[in-house]
């Protein structure tokens, strides 16, 4: 079964009350845009978060455009960074 | 990048500026060494009810990748001898050291610029997040502007 691993960090993890989950790879989750749409359909607070100023990294590389996802991919969602 | 040229660590332990300076100053071409240290300010100075503790979370694996890329970018833009980036995570108190960025080069202009470049981009790209007194700190517009400013300069 093809899966993707989702990670949520910082304030997102607190709001969503979730820091990690595994999702099955399907037509509804095989690109960044379809994945975001599927997660928004969970309703509040997912809907607001997926629409916002959210950062997305696939396999630890930040993505600025839509991208296909593959079995075993790690997709991270995080707010603007505040290190340093 | 040669192995000894670059030292990048994400760690809970404190660091010592003197020790890091010695590492950066090695080599006959390190005529200029610039170091920067970021510290936890005392929040209770402006708000007596503020919690003095800060907590730093990061994305293990990606943080190191991003800092290595930033270093590579800096080394392509300026002639650098050595670069060190140390960033602490976990719980820190007012007055604690958070981050160290050090650069050595033959001459000072490259060293000053590269150090500032690395810090400006670290603050907008490295996946770390600060929590102060139970509240997540918000990213600052001034940090984004500082990073963007490097795109419009000649990079000298």
Q: What this model shows, in words?
A:
Chain A is an alpha+beta fold and 84 residues long. Chain A has helices spanning 10-16, 32-40, 46-51; strands at residues 3-8, 20-24, 55-58, 61-62, 74-78. The mean pLDDT of chain A is 95. Chain B is of the alpha+beta class and 156 residues long. Chain B is built from four helices and eight strands. Chain B has a four-stranded mixed sheet with strand order 1-4-6-2, sandwiched between helices. The A-B interface holds A 7, 9-11, 14, 55, 57, 60-62, 76, 78-84 and B 38, 56-59, 61-63, 65, 87, 98-99, 119, 122-131, 136-139, 143.
**From the alpha-carbon coordinates, what is the Rg of chain A to the nearest angstrom?**
12 Å
Cα-to-Cα separation, first versus last residue of chain A: 40 Å
Count of helical stretches of chain B: 4
What summary fits the major beta sheet of chain B?
4 strands, mixed
Give me the count of strands of chain A: 5
Q: Most extensive interface, residues per chain? A: A-B, 18 and 28 residues
How far is the N terminus from the C terminus of chain B?
21 Å
| Total count of strands of chain B | 8
Q: What is the helix fraction of residues of chain A, given as a range?
A: 25-40%
What is shown here, in short?
The complex is a heterodimer of chains A (84) and B (156). With 84 residues, chain A is an alpha+beta fold. Helix content of chain A is 26%, strand content 26%.
How would the blueprint of this fold be written?
The complex is a heterodimer of chains A (84) and B (156).
Chain A: E1 3-8, H1 10-16, E2 20-24, H2 32-40, H3 46-51, E3 55-58, E4 61-62, E5 74-78
Parallel strand pairs in A: 1-5
Antiparallel strand pairs in A: 1-2, 3-4, 3-5
Chain B: E1 6-11, H1 17-25, E2 32-39, E3 54-58, H2 62-77, E4 80-88, E5 90-92, E6 97-105, H3 108-125, E7 128-132, E8 135-136, H4 141-149
Parallel strand pairs in B: 1-4
Antiparallel strand pairs in B: 2-6, 3-5, 3-7, 4-6, 7-8
């Amino acid at each position: 079964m093809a899966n993707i691993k989702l990670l949520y960090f910082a304030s997102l993890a607190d709001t969503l009350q979730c820091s990690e989950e595994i999702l099955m790879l399907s037509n509804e989750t095989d690109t960044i845009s379809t994945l975001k749409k599927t997660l928004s359909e969970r309703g509040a607070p997912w809907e607001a978060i997926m629409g916002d100023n959210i950062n997305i990294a696939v396999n630890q590389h930040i993505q600025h455009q839509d991208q296909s996802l593959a079995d075993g991919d790690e997709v991270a969602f995080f707010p603007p960074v505040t290190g340093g | 990048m040669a192995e000894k040229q670059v030292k990048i660590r994400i760690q809970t332990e404190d660091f010592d500026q003197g020790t890091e300076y010695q590492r950066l100053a090695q080599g006959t071409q390190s005529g200029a060494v610039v170091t920067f240290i970021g510290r936890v300010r005392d929040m209770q100075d402006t708000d007596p009810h503020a919690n003095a503790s800060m907590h730093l979370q990061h994305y293990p694996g990606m943080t190191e990748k991003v800092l290595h890329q930033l270093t590579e970018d800096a080394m392509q833009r300026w002639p650098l001898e050595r670069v060190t980036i140390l960033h602490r995570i976990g719980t820190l108190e007012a007055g604690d050291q958070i981050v160290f960025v050090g650069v050595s080069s033959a001459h000072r202009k490259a060293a000053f610029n590269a150090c500032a470049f690395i810090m400006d981009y670290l603050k907008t790209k490295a996946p770390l997040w600060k929590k102060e007194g139970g509240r997540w700190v918000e990213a600052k517009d001034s940090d984004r502007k500082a990073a963007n400013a490097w795109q419009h300069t000649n990079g000298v």
